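Figure 6 in text form: structure in, sequence out.
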């Protein structure tokens, strides 16, 4: 905290850089509909959190002991003979992470269909036991085309990281605002209990988002524009269905 008080500018820049360390957290909530709370909680506390702590603390210790390792602390953690296995492990982790995002996209698409914000799509239920395990071919192919276009368009992982940081922190901020609405209006939490908690959450999410605002001019504008376009399309579809239903009701014959 003293560092942020003494060096506020550098502190904001650091927040914008380290935000990628927690970008997988939002995928956990998107996957809740697929796997449920218990599997995700157990996987997080038993495996993911300890592994991340060891990894990040190890990188920090390496950089403190050898400042030259800052150029690539992750791969320099291991001896030279373990470089290729570590690359293979990283590739597998990337595939798993992408699968989590794809599953989350399926879940959110299903919810949007049920709420009437997008047209109906062909949905395949891949499990006879778990209702949330689904596959939506149109979304899967759209994601593939979108990823290929993004990789070609951005050309570098640095530009993609900027876009990803803006997207993730914006999602976290919007989620906190929505949770605030649900807690106060739907769950009827006492304001004295809910407001302090929400202020803390909004403060953290707001700081992370503010730290990533400068990245909007470095490729971060894409997720903002994409979100705006999707918002307009979804709300237009919803409003159009409402107007159509009202017109049908006006022209219908009353039941005897």
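Output sequence:
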């Amino acid at each position: 905290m003293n560092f942020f008080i003494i060096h506020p500018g550098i502190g904001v820049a650091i927040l914008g850089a380290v935000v990628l360390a927690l970008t997988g957290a939002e995928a956990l909530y998107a996957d809740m509909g697929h796997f449920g709370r218990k599997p995700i909680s157990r996987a997080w506390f038993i495996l993911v959190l300890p592994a991340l702590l060891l990894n990040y603390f190890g990188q920090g210790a390496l950089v403190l002991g050898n400042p030259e390792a800052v150029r690539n602390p992750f791969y320099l953690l291991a001896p030279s003979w373990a470089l290729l296995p570590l690359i293979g492990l990283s590739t597998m982790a990337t595939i798993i992470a992408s699968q989590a995002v794809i599953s989350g996209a399926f879940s959110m698409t299903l919810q949007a269909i049920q709420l009437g914000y997008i047209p109906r799509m062909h949905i395949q239920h891949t499990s006879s036991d778990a209702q949330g395990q689904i596959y939506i071919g149109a979304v899967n192919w759209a994601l593939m085309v979108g990823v290929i276009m993004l990789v070609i368009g951005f050309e570098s992982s640095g530009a993609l990281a900027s876009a990803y940081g803006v997207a993730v922190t914006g999602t976290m901020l919007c989620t906190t605002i929505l949770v605030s609405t649900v807690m106060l209006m739907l769950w009827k939490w006492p304001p004295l209990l809910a407001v302090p908690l929400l202020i803390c959450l909004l403060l953290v999410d707001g700081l992370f988002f503010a730290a990533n605002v400068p990245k909007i001019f470095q490729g971060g504008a894409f997720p903002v524009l994409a979100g705006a376009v999707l918002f307009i399309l979804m709300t237009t579809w919803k409003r159009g269905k409402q107007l159509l239903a009202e017109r049908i009701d006006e022209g219908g014959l009353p039941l005897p």
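Caption detail: The beta strands are 124-125, 134-135.
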